[in-house]
Design a protein that fits this description.
38% of the residues lie in helices and 21% in strands. The strands form five sheets. The protein has an eight-stranded parallel barrel with strand order 2-3-4-5-6-7-8-9, surrounded by seven helices. Strands 13-14-15 form a three-stranded antiparallel β-sheet, with helices on one face. The chain is of the alpha/beta class.
Length: 538
């Protein structure tokens, strides 16, 4: 049986921009459009030309090579002809392949938001679609609040959808704008739309995640008959977000319920890049990736319990619903106080450390890890610190340098202009090749000052750490109170793109931070010599 084609429509640059705290520049939009285009998305919706300078500039040029470049905007206003509507003119004049019109399909919104009659709204839908087609552009209509509108007045909601289809719209998109519709309701409503005469290969779904079911609603709509799915990268969007295409695409491609019936424009080779796409997008937003994100998260194929790790070693399918490499991810058998020998052996092997399971040093390592985790260390989240600990206990680690002492001071005072200032200063004494060096630095807080001072002069190793950067810094209080045990996790990266985490634990937050900083630098020097870093490079 020939597979049916499903079309993927990305609205990251339009609906995703409604996310609190996200504001794309023109350069951001160009970069994201390129990522989506190269991945194989069918439609890239870029924004609302004419609504703001950024979107207007973005649509001054065509931004995709393969995907259809889509402009978004409202249908023409009631009482104004299509030829005299400035908003419609901006859409028609943009360098887009297609125009996606947002149209009210709930009579309550027509009355309250538009302030026009139901008939005037239908006429606006018809005239706008016809104007887009006359301009040589593909027309799409997002039927806003369709599911709520259908529940309130099914005849009018269907009339809006039918008007768009009859006018020549390539896609009529059913929107769950408030995000409250349930999957069973989506199936039932889509079935009635199909029965009204609009074919499934002209229907799309646009779901919001206000009940955590945007992905489920999108898949339910596909099962019911729609053939276009709209969503965003990593599920960003206003309120609780939009349907997450990063979760939807692998499900469509890898789950037999969909893969046996449908095909998308995403090849199996391209799918292996979806984890990289997800992380690249988070990197552009300057936010940490969601570790438990389906398919692409760092924990998506991670196991912690010893019995699970033992089974994984024998047969991965025991605890994996798809193969990690199919989505560009990897299997992680985590070391922790819950892990058994299988966890440790698997993690050591990934780091190029082969060891028989009856080696007494392995038992000693497991014992030390469990003791340290009882003290507050978290090696499951600090891959580099675990590798250094293992290598120190099993093979030894070179002493590149030795810190003999450090001191950190924080002063809060008024400057010459009467402004209150907080100044942090650190002094570090370090021995390299028998020569003691002392470095002094000021920073934005004591940890930053320590970091600068420690890396200020490492003698012959100085050039090796020039590309080392701290990407993230996390502090966790473990047992309450100002005297509590503190755990610090630091993420570092270098010019190769490798990333690694280190950990420090102490009653003193500065001491805990310094431990993690030291591990990060030593790991970098080991990595430069191919003595560590296989995992960081994955």
């Amino acid at each position: 049986m020939k597979k049916q084609r499903l079309y993927l429509f990305d609205t990251t640059l339009r609906d995703g921009q409604q996310t609190p705290g996200i504001d794309f520049s023109v350069e951001d939009k160009i970069a994201i459009a390129k990522l989506l285009d190269e991945f194989g998305i069918d439609y890239v919706e870029g924004g609302y030309p004419g609504a703001n300078p950024t979107d207007t500039a973005f649509f001054a040029e065509h931004r995709t090579a393969s995907a259809k470049f889509v402009a978004f905007g409202m249908t023409k206003r009631a009482g104004v002809s299509a030829s005299n509507d400035p908003g419609l003119a901006a859409l028609v004049q943009s360098k887009s392949d297609a125009i996606c019109f947002v149209a009210k399909s709930w009579d309550y919104h027509v009355r309250v938001a538009l302030g026009c009659t139901n008939e005037e709204n239908l006429e606006a839908i018809k005239a706008s679609v016809e104007a887009a087609i006359a301009a040589g552009k593909e027309a799409l209509v997002d039927c806003e609040h369709f599911f709520d509108g259908f529940k309130a007045n099914p005849d009018y909601a269907l009339a809006c959808a039918k008007t768009a289809y009859d006018a020549g719209a390539r896609w009529v998109v059913l929107c769950d704008t408030n995000g409250g519709t349930q999957p069973s309701e989506v199936r039932a409503v889509v079935g009635k739309v199909l029965s009204s005469g609009i074919p499934g290969d002209h229907l799309g779904i646009h779901a919001h995640d206000d009940t955590g079911q945007a992905v489920a609603n999108s898949l339910a709509a596909v099962e019911a008959g729609v053939r276009q799915v709209q969503g965003t990268l990593n599920g960003i969007g206003e309120r609780c977000g939009n349907a997450n295409l990063i979760s939807i695409v692998p499900t469509l491609a890898l789950k037999p319920a969909f893969a046996d019936r449908f095909e998308t424009g995403i090849s199996a080779e391209a799918l292996t890049g979806i984890s990289r796409l997800s992380r690249a997008f988070d990197e552009l937003l300057n936010r940490a990736p969601e570790a438990q994100a389906p398919y692409v998260g760092a924990s998506a194929f991670a196991t912690k319990a010893g019995i699970h790790a033992s089974a994984l070693a024998k047969e991965p399918a025991t605890y994996e619903h798809v193969e990690p490499h199919a989505v560009g991810n990897r299997r992680r058998v985590m070391v922790s106080d819950q892990g058994g020998k299988a966890n440790f052996l698997a993690e050591l092997k990934r780091r190029g450390i082969d060891m028989p399971k009856d080696d007494h040093r392995l038992d000693a390592l497991i014992s030390v890890v469990k003791e340290r985790e009882a003290e507050g260390y978290a090696y499951e989240g600090a891959d580099a610190s675990f590798e250094l600990l293992a290598r120190r206990m099993l093979h030894g680690v070179p002493e590149f340098f030795n810190v003999t002492s450090f001191r950190c001071m924080v002063e809060r005072r008024f400057d010459a202009n009467g402004q209150l200032k907080t100044v942090s200063e650190a002094i570090v004494k370090v021995v390299v090749d028998g020569e003691e060096k002392m470095s002094v630095a000021e920073g934005h807080g004591p940890v930053n000052a320590l970091d600068i001072a420690l890396r200020k002069d490492l003698g012959k190793f100085q050039s090796e750490i020039a590309d080392l950067e701290l990407a993230d810094f996390k502090v966790r209080i473990l047992n309450g109170g100002t005297e509590a045990i503190t755990r610090v996790l630091i993420e570092s990266h270098d010019a190769t793109g490798a990333r690694w985490w280190t950990v420090g634990v102490s009653e003193n937050i500065i001491d805990a931070s310094f431990q993690a900083l030291m591990d990060s630098i030593v790991y970098k020097l080991m990595k430069n010599r191919d003595m560590a870093g296989l995992v960081a490079a994955e």
